[in-house]
Amino acid sequence: MMRIKNYLLGGFFFCASVVATAEVIPVYQIDQPAGTYLQTTLTHDIYRYAADSKLNDLVVTDQQGNKLPYRIGSAHPVKEQVQHSPLHFFPVAVGAPPETLLALSSASIKLDANEISVSVEKTVNEQLLDKSAPIDFFVVDLSDTRARADKLIVDWQVNETNQYLEVQVSGTNDLTNWSNITQATLAQLQKDGQKLVRNKINLNLTEMQYAYVRLKFLRGGEKLQLTGITLENTEKVAATPVVDSWKVTGELADEQESVLLTGDRAPGVSVAAWEFTRDDIAPVSRLGIELGSIMYGDVVRIFSRSSDKQPWQLVHQGIWFNAQVGNEWQQSDAITVNNNSDTQWRVELNEFIRTKAAPVIVFHHQPETLQFIANNSAPFNIAIETDPAQYKQNTSAQVFSQLISGKKIQWVQANFTELKPAMSSFARHGLQVSWKTILFWAILMLAVGVLVLVALRLVKQMSVEKTL
């Protein structure tokens, strides 16, 4: 009997050890590189296999399966320079709903016949501004700014009531949910020809962290007239890869009424709607729409979500143009979408093109540079680790930084070979419950059942012995 229990316990611990072991699935392979400090370019293709949009599940291994230290980022900067970019901004009256903010930030078309191009020029829709209502806050549009946002320079007409300004700064991507960023005090003082100007707000926002910034003046905001808002960045100039772009085709949606939700669900508005599914979770920085040879100059609404169980979230609403200029078809500039990793997308256009168009979404992603420290055990694999408990504790970047600290390193560009593993091997595409987990629980249940039977037999045997 003891032998049976030992076998069961041994099988239990063996199964537990199998399940606890993370599976590492190679995606790319680098053969015999010429150097120790290697780098390669990762495009959106790696996100077809990854389950984490920040690539925390990526590992680099040698021939024996040992994990090598690495980091993912952009190329090393060679110099710095300060850049100033004027920003579009508009006042918002007290009580203005989110849909009014979207309308105020819409785009209008500008045709330049000399350059034979179509560009989008953002303007404030004066008809939607309630000039009689007091101003609640100002919205600054960062959606066309691809770089990070270091500082805002705020200029205003100075009078006695607003020499000092106290401003609360918040950020959002949907003009509905705002997150606090910072609070600052600005000042413009003048006396005897001398000026003291403190008009910069430190934002320290990462690249495309927020599409809009709200400036709510807690002091000095009465009758405040802003004359300009400028983005100031200390840019790191580097040799970065060309932007990665790819196209996804869609299908005419079953629901041909707009899914846009307002304060009260509007009555069914007929649209021409298409839905798209991409097989990657690459953080998308911008997207465009191709309509082929169809004249269009009307509203477009773009929605996204990460699964069927979630409601559609509005990503963009504005005017989209597709026009023939000269011998070429030109369309509106790509839309900034702030590192969106959603896999499901929906495009709504005017219903009159429902039977004429077959829209294509063009996604844009800034490739990353993978740098790692090689050993003498080539080939090396760029792989995906399937156990979330392992990659959440990934400290490779910290180890990498310590190993290269203080060293002047010449990085060697390495090319990889695609191994094309089966998509079903990865958790995001395959079954959420692996065969190892099923085997583990089957053995566990069997072991528990046998132990219960053994216990019952022992109890029965002890009862018989007592009666004797």
Describe this protein's structure.
The protein is of the alpha+beta class. It folds into three domains: 2-73 and 376-425, no CATH class; 79-237, Jelly Rolls (Sandwich), CATH 2.60.120; 244-365, Jelly Rolls. It has five helices and 30 strands. The protein has helices at 2-20, 98-104, 388-391, 396-404, 435-467; strands spanning 24-30, 37-42, 58-61, 70-73, 79-86, 88-93, 107-112, 117-122, 135-141, 149-156, 164-172, 179-191, 194-198, 200-205, 212-219, 226-237, 244-249, 251-252, 272-277, 284-290, 296-305, 313-325, 328-331, 335-340, 344-349, 360-365, 368-373, 380-385, 412-413, 417-418. The strands form seven sheets. It has a six-stranded antiparallel beta sheet with strand order 6-9-15-11-12-13, with no helix packed on it. Strand 22 and strand 23 (328-331) form a beta hairpin. Helix 1 (2-20) packs antiparallel against helix 5. The longest helix is centred in the C-terminal third of the chain and has 33 residues, at 435-467. The radius of gyration is 29 Å and the shape is globular. The two termini are 23 Å apart.
